[in-house]
Every structure is written in structure tokens, then in C-alpha cells.
Design a protein that fits this description.
Strand order of the largest sheet: 1-2
Largest sheet: 2 strands, parallel
Distance between the termini: 27 Å
Radius of gyration: 15 Å
Organism: Kaistella montana
Order of helices and strands: HHHHHHHEE
Helix content: 55-70%
Number of helices: 7
Keywords: Membrane, Transmembrane, Transmembrane helix
Protein name: DUF6973 domain-containing protein
Structural class: mainly alpha
Length: 170
């Protein structure tokens, strides 16, 4: 846990004043969502490291899993206190902002944004079958492990992999 807090603190320290303002613009109007999004960040990071210690911080399948899990957990936690529509809007803003604040190479950015969307879609697809108050992270984790079986390697910015997880060659 200390390692995660240290990483998050050091990450925030790297932000310029302009980027800090953009972050505050997201979190100040939605403090509960922001707290739940932060909690989802920690959970997804620790779970990805547990299941994929070698690829959770690279561009491999562990990273694809982490990004999809992250957005699905944000959705799950925020839906417990608000509507799915509001949770989806916040989740999209938070995950897109992350990619803007901490830019990657274009292919890595496409991969991350795509996997974030896969996580949001997964949650929304599961929502009609499970009351949002009874969602558990294991439902999402199990579904993501199934999705990993059909994960594709992303090689071009123009590729469209629909709702499959994508990763760069490991």
C-alpha cells in the first residue's frame, strides 16, 4: 500500500500547474466520485500486479487487464451512489483525462483508451443482469479473464478491435 501511495504522490508532483487545474476541475465538483475513482485506481493497480506481475506496468496483457478493470471498477463503485449514466460520464472523463495528463505514444494511448472503453462496456453489459448494489469486483475480474482469451495485439492506429481487449507485443 505504501508503494502505491508513493507512486501516486510522485505522479501528482510531476503535473504542471495547468494539468493540476484540469484535475481539480474534474474532482472538485464530484468529490465522492473522485474518492471512489481513486479507490478504483488503487484496487486495479494492486490486482493487476497480483495477477500479472510482469506485464501490469508494461504494454502487455496485464496492462490491458488493468485499464479495463480500472474503468469497470470506477463504474461499479460510482453506480453504488449514483445513476449508471452519471457514473459512465464521470468514468469517461476521468479515464480520458488520465491519458491527457500523462501522455503516451499514440499507439499506447489508443490501446489504453480502447481498454478503458472495454471496461465501461463490460460493466454496462453486465448491469441489466445484476442489481448495481450487488455488484462485486469478482464478477468483473472473471469476465475480464474470459476477455483475455481473445485479446488482440494492436499494431496500427487505424485498427478496430471492437470490444476485444488489446495490447502491444510483450
Amino acid at each position: 500500500m505504501r508503494k502505491i501511495i508513493k507512486i501516486l504522490f510522485n505522479t501528482i508532483r510531476t503535473l504542471s500547474f495547468q494539468k493540476l487545474l484540469r484535475l481539480l476541475k474534474l474532482v472538485v465538483p464530484h468529490p465522492l466520485f473522485a474518492f471512489l475513482g481513486f479507490y478504483a485506481t488503487i484496487k486495479s493497480f494492486t490486482l493487476a500486479e497480483k495477477f500479472f506481475p510482469k506485464t501490469s506496468a508494461t504494454n502487455g496483457v496485464g496492462n490491458a487487464f488493468r485499464h479495463a478493470l480500472w474503468s469497470a471498477l470506477i463504474m461499479m463503485y460510482c453506480c453504488k451512489i449514483s445513476s449508471p449514466k452519471k457514473a459512465l460520464k464521470f468514468c469517461k472523463e476521468m479515464t480520458d483525462l488520465h491519458e491527457e495528463l500523462f501522455p503516451n505514444e499514440p499507439l499506447e494511448k489508443k490501446m489504453d483508451l480502447h481498454n478503458n472503453q472495454v471496461g465501461m462496456n463490460l460493466f454496462m453489459d453486465m448491469l441489466p443482469g445484476i442489481h448495481r448494489q450487488f455488484f462485486e469486483k469478482n464478477f468483473i475480474i472473471d469476465s475480464l479473464f474470459e476477455k483475455l482469451k481473445t485479446a488482440k495485439v494492436l499494431t496500427d492506429l487505424k485498427e478496430n478491435h471492437n470490444n476485444d481487449l488489446v495490447y502491444l507485443a510483450e
